[in-house]
Write a structure and sequence with these properties.
The structure holds two protein chains of two kinds. By secondary structure, chain A is mostly helical. Chain A is built from six helices and no strands. Chain A folds into two domains: 115 residues, no CATH class; 44 residues. Chain A starts with a helix and ends with a helix. Helices cover 84% and strands 0% of the residues of chain B. In chain B, α1 runs antiparallel to α2 and α2 packs antiparallel against α3. Classes of the chains: A mainly alpha, B mainly alpha. At the A-B interface, α1, α2, α3, α5 and α6 of A face α1, α2 and α3 of B.
Chain lengths: 160, 102
């Protein structure tokens, strides 16, 4: 029974933070809410047994992309910083409470029971197939990432 | 289909549609990039939900892994283009940028 509450709490917190981010007229408020939604999504992945993807989600979106967004907001002069706004703080606290409650339910009430990887021979075959081509996968990803970084550096550099 | 799976699938779909609607109606290019990030979140959640409880779960996880990196790269490029557009036109409103063209 409690295990059904976990995805509901996580989904509710995610949709609420994203909706506030998209509806808000202030860009800085949207940035803070997107940071919260990144953390919630990373927590969802982690709670459902995929800690590597959850960690990557938090590092990439809640870390790097949030800092990049903040830099762009400051560069374009749109930083009406919304620090100290009571309504924003209430949304943040509600989202944090929902994530904390979902985490507690998942850990202590056995919400993770239906989420374990099925231990059949077929799953091991799929795993070995994926890990067989893992180097090519990572190489392609790193190439895409490096190309994006080079493009960003070129576009942000001053023309002499 | 698991209950968790259907809930996350529905949430992912909602996020994708919210993001697309916000991209369509946004009058600020930074907000458009943020809406693109929401679309990426929705896709990630839907891909993750598709693999929940399935034998092919590692495939879903790998797709989420790839989607995160590709989405982050695309968003970084988008933000760099936003800064370039702001330097050239002095505004971030797409309507004004279109009016200034030619």
């Amino acid at each position: 029974m409690y295990s059904e509450l976990v995805p509901l709490l996580l989904s509710g917190a995610l949709v609420a933070t994203v909706a506030v981010a998209l509806i808000s007229s202030k860009v800085s408020t949207a940035l803070i809410m997107l940071f919260y939604s990144s953390v919630i999504l990373g927590t969802t992945f982690t709670l459902y047994g995929d800690s590597l993807v959850g960690l990557l989600q938090m590092i990439t979106f809640a870390g790097a992309i949030s800092v990049l967004l903040l830099t762009v907001i400051l560069m374009t002069g749109q930083s009406e910083l919304a620090i100290g706004v009571r309504r924003l703080a209430i949304y943040g606290v509600l989202a944090s409470l929902a994530v904390a409650a979902a985490s507690a339910l998942a850990v202590f009430a056995g919400g993770e029971g239906s989420l374990a990887l099925p231990s059949t021979d077929i799953s091991l075959t799929v795993l070995s197939f994926i890990w067989q081509y893992r180097e090519w996968d990572i190489l392609i990803l790193m190439t895409v990432f490096a190309a994006a970084m080079v493009g960003v550096t070129n576009l942000l550099s001053e023309a002499k | 289909m698991l209950i968790d799976q259907s809930i996350f699938m529905a949430t992912g779909t909602i996020l994708v549609f919210l993001g697309i609607a916000s991209i369509s109606y946004s009058k600020n290019l930074v907000k458009s990039v943020m809406a693109f990030q929401v679309v990426v979140f929705g896709v990630n959640l839907a891909l993750f939900a598709a693999g929940l409880g399935q034998i092919s779960r590692p495939v879903g996880d790998t797709l989420v892994f790839m989607s995160i990196l590709v989405g982050a790269s695309a968003e970084a490029m988008g933000l760099a283009i936003v800064v370039t557009v702001f330097r050239k036109y002095g505004t971030l409103n797409p309507m004004e940028i279109r009016r200034l063209r030619g």
